[in-house]
UniProtKB/TrEMBL annotation:
Recorded GO MF terms: ATP binding; ATP hydrolysis activity; transmembrane transporter activity
Biological process terms in GO annotation: cytochrome complex assembly
Domain of life of the native organism: Bacteria
Protein name: Heme exporter protein A
InterPro entries listed in its UniProt record: AAA+_ATPase, ABC_transporter-like_ATP-bd, ABC_transporter-like_CS, ABC_transptr_haem_export_CcmA, P-loop_NTPase
Keyword Heme carried by entry: no
The ABC transporter domain, residue ranges: 15-208
Keywords: ATP-binding, Cytochrome c-type biogenesis, Membrane, Nucleotide-binding, Translocase, Transport
SUPFAM superfamilies for this protein: P-loop containing nucleoside triphosphate hydrolases
Length: 212
């Protein structure tokens, strides 16, 4: 398995977070968090349930506003980075259950700007062909995660924000996604992932304290 698409990813390839404080409701999740994510690098956010890993990813994606601190992206304003340079893959994958997988993949990937070749590459490397005529709601959790992941392959974006990306996958597909993640890093991409299990690529760990 591999992707031989060869094109260079666009900048920016780095996130800089400084002095970040984040609350949810009445609760302060963390204060004064700093992190730099460089091109070619993966960072694994670890910590207990409720520590704030997903919340940090959501703040980087621009879905929630921090109490204090700064999140910046190399060479480009945050709004543009979030619109054009980030792939977000969360617990809620945004896939519509009633649509055939083929239509849903085409809809999502084309909305992100994928062409036919990108979609075909994603179908190939994620072995989606046998699943494409099934409605999304009929896919198993692992099959559905592969379908959700397909847009990251169909459209190249430099920053991947992943929330427990491997949790429903079996050993074979964890390994396969490790290959795809490594290819992304080798092209100069970056990965920031919330995890309970180790990522299948070399990654720097950042423990988010707290949790309950
Ligand atoms: N919309 C919300 N309103 C209020 N509190 C929230 C909201 N979303 C999350 N929280 C709270 O923020 C805290 C951190 O949640 P978050 O999902 O970031 O944790 P996590 O580290 O990703 O946990 P897990 O390992 O269980 O996925 C939790 O206590 C959670 O209840």
């Amino acid at each position: 398995m591999g992707i031989e698409r060869g094109s260079q990813l666009d900048r920016p390839r780095m996130i800089s977070i400084s002095g970040l404080s984040l609350s949810r409701g009445e609760r302060v999740l963390f204060r004064d968090l700093s992190l730099t994510l460089a091109s070619g690098e993966a960072v694994a956010l670890t910590g207990a349930n409720g520590a704030g890993k997903t919340s940090l990813l959501r703040a980087v994606a621009g879905f929630i506003r921090p109490d204090a601190g700064n999140i910046s992206f190399a060479d480009v304003e945050a709004d543009e980075a979030r619109a054009k340079h980030i792939h977000w893959l969360g617990h809620l994958d945004g896939l519509k259950g009633a649509r055939p997988a083929r239509d849903e993949l085409a809809f999502q990937a084309e909305w992100l700007g994928a062409g036919h070749d990108g979609i075909a590459a994603a179908i190939d490397v994620l072995a989606l062909e046998p699943l494409l005529d099934l409605e999304v709601r009929k896919l198993s959790a692992g099959q559905r995660r592969r379908l959700a992941f397909a847009r990251l392959i169909a459209v190249q974006r430099p920053i991947w924000l992943l929330d427990e990306p491997l949790s429903p996958l079996d050993a074979r597909w964890r390994e396969a996604l490790g290959v795809l993640m490594q290819a992304h890093l080798d092209r100069g991409g970056a990965i920031l992932a919330a995890v309970h299990d180790p990522l299948p690529v070399a990654a720097r760990a950042l423990d988010i304290g707290g949790g309950r």
